[in-house]
Amino acid sequence: MLFPKLPVISKGTAATSGYYQVGSEIFNNKLEALYHASKNKQRPRWVFHDDVYGKFDWTTRPLLGLKEVYRARAQQLRDKYDYISISFSGGADSWNTLNSFLSNGIHVDEVYTRFAIDGSRRYVNANSTVKNPGNYTSEFEYAVKPVLDYVAKNFPKTKITVDDITTDYFNEVTEDEMFRTGHYAFSGMSAKRCANQVGLDVDYTNKKVASIRGSGKLQVFAFAGSFFTCFIDSDAWPVDSDPHLALEYFYWSPDMPDVVAVQAHTMLDYFRARPELHHLIAPAASNVAVNGGNLLRTQDEVLTYAYDETVKSICYPGWDPNTFQAGKNSKVIFEREEDFWILKENSTSVQSWKWAVDQFYTKLDDLAFFNPDASDTTKRALRTYISKSYRIGSI
To answer: How far apart, in Å, are the Cα atoms of 369 and each of 278, 283, 293, 382?
Structure first.
């Protein structure tokens, strides 16, 4: 059965990752929403905490600064849960999340990281000079491990979990696993990443346990003299299936909209003073047709990289821009550079993953995809959907 029936949320609420509306129907899962939209010749709409963000005063700048609002968010999570596991990738988003706890003396129970280290090392050694996406695993040696060593030395009560998930990629990828990947179904590796990111020996007895993730990076754009923020579904990971575990986004949470508001006002100040950089936040009009008139900044890869680096430097105080980071993977289905070693192995997981994805994609309408390279329409990527936009101020 390609689409196991999942529990759906009510229209008046929103899952952590938001939900999709197709006509009058509500879906937790992007793939299920796309399937029903294609079947009924409709377009899905992604709803991300509209009930909270729609009532929030975005134009009034919160009194807290960036460091203060991050500390407040970390303390809010600490007060809410008995056990906190921070999912740490070594990137700026997760680094700032972890730092917001530790630099303020707020206890973290676990720092969790996962890489297919053994698998990729069969083909390529760690190398700090190669920045292509195929060298992604080197982020473990050069971005993750130094931080883990620091935590082990200075915060001995924090558990460190390094999960080498190589063996997972030699097992069959079931339809259910592929289905739960949501937006990231195009990656064979991501089918296994959808599993809960907490150590296996965590005691859930009478405890509220949460996985804290640094999703997602601030999204802003300028249009007709105004400055807006919005959210994108590709940065809102699927809700995990473990009923004992809560998924919490550090930045994108309706429990503290001030986090995004402070970031957005800080970025507005930055771009107001630099009109020569406004091309980085110009809207991509091509998104309008599939997002109900909503806009998002340009999706050009070069400009997106420059924008992301700007967010890191402005919104994450203390982030070291010299931290090793591999390049971003292609969005094209079946062609993520990071997956090279899995494809070389050509294991059962690769065959089952391709079969499941092929079965699914043949049932989708063309509007579910876009072409990252307009000159080659045979290479398609899954479309990103955008939330409502919220005006921050004039620019």
So the answer is: 28, 19, 18, 5
Neighbour-count burial of 10, counting CB atoms closer than 10 A to its CB (0-12 exposed, 13-18 middle, 19+ buried)? exposed
pLDDT in tens, 271-311: 999 999 999 999 876 555 455 557 777 777 788 899 999 99
**Residues with Cβ within 8 Å of residue 281, at least 6 apart in sequence:** 220, 221, 222, 227, 271, 297, 298, 307
Tokens 């309008």 belong to which residue? 288
Q: Considering only 15-29, 59-73, 165-179, which range has the smallest mean pLDDT?
A: 165-179
Q: Provide φ and ψ at 43, rounded to 5°.
A: -115, 130
User: What does the H/E/C string look like for 76-116?
Assistant: HHHHHCCEEEEECCCCHHHHHHHHHHHCCCCCCCEEEEEEC
Task: Return d(Cα 220, Cα 228) in angstroms, integer.
Answer: 5
For 153-162, what is the mean pLDDT? 97
Residues sharing a CB contact under 8 Å with residue 190, sequence separation 6 or more, in sequence order = 181, 184
- How high is the pLDDT of residue 1? 37
Q: In this structure, what are the phi and psi dihedrals at residue 35, rounded to the nearest 5 degrees? A: -60, -50
Q: Label the pairing between strands 369-370 and 219-223.
A: unpaired
Token pair of 194 as six digits: 């959808």
pLDDT tens profile 46-96: 999 999 999 999 999 999 999 999 999 999 999 999 999 999 999 999 999
Which pTM does this prediction carry? 0.91
Burial 108-126 (b: 16+ CB within 10 A, else e): bbbbbbbbbbebbbeeeeb
Strand-strand pairing, 226-230 and 245-249: unpaired
For residue 292, is the peptide bond before it cis, meaning its omega torsion is within 30 degrees of 0?
Answer: no
Residues 85 and 202 sit within 8 Å (Cβ to Cβ): yes
* Closest by Cα among 156, 165, 91, 125 to 327: 91
To which H or E segment does residue 72 belong?
helix 66-80
Quote the CA–CA distance of 23 and 84 in Å, as a whole number: 38
Q: What percent of the chain clears pLDDT 90, i.e. is strictly above it?
A: 53
- Contact (Cβ atoms closer than 8 angstroms) between residue 8 and residue 24: no
For strand 83-87 and strand 25-27, is the pairing parallel, antiparallel, or unpaired? unpaired
Say whether 227 sits in a helix, a strand or coil: strand
